[in-house]
Design goal:
Layout (H helix, E strand, L loop, with lengths): L1 H10 L9 H10 L7 H13 L5 H8 L3 H12 L2 H10 L3 H13 L1 H6 L8 E5 L24 H13 L6 E4 L11 H10 L5 E4 L6 H6 L8 E6 L4 H8 L4 H19 L4 E8 L7 H13 L9 E6 L28 H21 L4 E4 L3 H5 L24 E5 L3 E3 L16 E4 L5 H10 L16 H19 L24
Parallel strand pairs: 1-2, 1-8, 3-4, 4-5, 5-6, 6-7
Antiparallel strand pairs: 8-9, 9-10
Helix pairs in contact: 3-5, 3-6, 9-10, 14-15
Amino acid sequence: MEKIKIMKEWLQSEHDSYLTDDVHYIINEEIKNETYNVEDIALIIHRLSEMPWTTQKDLLDELNISKDKLRELNKVIYNNDFFQQLIVKEGLGRKYWNTMIPYIKNGVNEKVVNYEYQYPFRLALFPGLSCMYYCGFCGRNQNAKYRGSVMKEGNQRFKDIISNMPKHSTLSISGGLEPLTNSGLSDIISHAKSEGVRVPLITNGHMLTSKYLQRNPGIWDLDSLRISLYGVDEESTYFVTRHKKAYQLVKNNMIEFLKLRNEKNPDLKFGLNYIILPENIDTLLGLLDYVNEVNSQVDNGRGVDFITIREDFGSVTEINDDVDKQVEGRKYHLEGLMTDEQRTQLIDVFKEFNERKDKECPEIHVDFGYAMVALGDGVLGKPLARVTGEQMRKSGYPQMSVAIDSLGDVFLYREAGFLDRPGNQKFVAGRIGEKDLEGTLKDFIENKVQVDRNDSDCRFMDSYDHLMTLLVNQTESDMEIGIQSPVRIEKEEQEGQISNNWYKD
């Protein structure tokens, strides 16, 4: 235990070529006093534990060693269980690894590089027709909504997709626009259940009233439901949503939903997502007060199961050319991502948050986002992993993930899946019609269709898309240089696990 503690503290610090005696001793003992350079092995472990997308070329350049030497060092790390644990489970990049590992196991990252077809590993359905909120960080065209006439055909298309999903693929329902605005959503969920497909749903909770639940019993067939919570009181909620009734309505809906959940399907996991913005750092502790109050009013069993804490990845806030900010009808936007000063402030906030959570509601699982993990551990770490528009994949990675809307448009990136968002059409791989999803994607992949990108196109990517891009770019670089990663992840064709497993690590 002491050994892990020493190494974890080292992994949480900035790497220094000078190792403490304890760290040097532990690594040296693990390599059994062979003549390998301890400092070189330490650097490889540290880099990959913090930034899992580090390429072998990056390591070659930093270590200034030959390819053969790097292969030797990689072999030592590959064959050592303790080193593997440090890289994948103990470092500040462990949440990134959690996301990446299933794709690496499946080998789908290599298929992307080679333009080999595979049915998408992860499918996101966007059935929402409109949204009643005007969140400042959201990149949607706030004037746009789908015609109701597309719903019947669109919903049947969603059901057909679900019926034809292979076992290795996973499904989620989100937006796009607010999913509950689709009156056929309940049937889609129940159809998925009948096909043995587990479904997580993301909603803003505005329409999740008792009357809605009576009319839509398919909601109880969900695996999990996560409400995107935009504030902990009326002021903070209105600031983000620009909807005066949002706070109290969603809170009431949440309480009634949980009471019914405990009667109808206690296995359904319920949670909240809270996005940290520069403007709402001081509201985070109020989130615990909010959850405690909700749970106190659920008098027949369990309350909130999990909380996910994320930061804005900059879909709108970091775009310099105002391409989204100036869209006609857009209500407003928020400015900027968090600074290092604000992230440092969050360390103290998270410390108090964790202490209070453990004392007041220890049964709730808290899932910190990728770059939030470091702050939750009490260290600054690195900002959220991001790529530039120029680093985006020219053909995306549809073998790994696509989003599909009610029109049947298949989007390469999730944040592109907003109706009439300026510039998003170039990221449509095709429209399902004469050909099904498989045929549409086969045409796109096998014809090696490529998209012209520019710097502002990163606005079409969420944090997951940024990470997947880094993973594929790493795979391509390592294949070109001819050196395999030292991380031991055995390739296997696996049945898909629920893609948004928020309620456990």
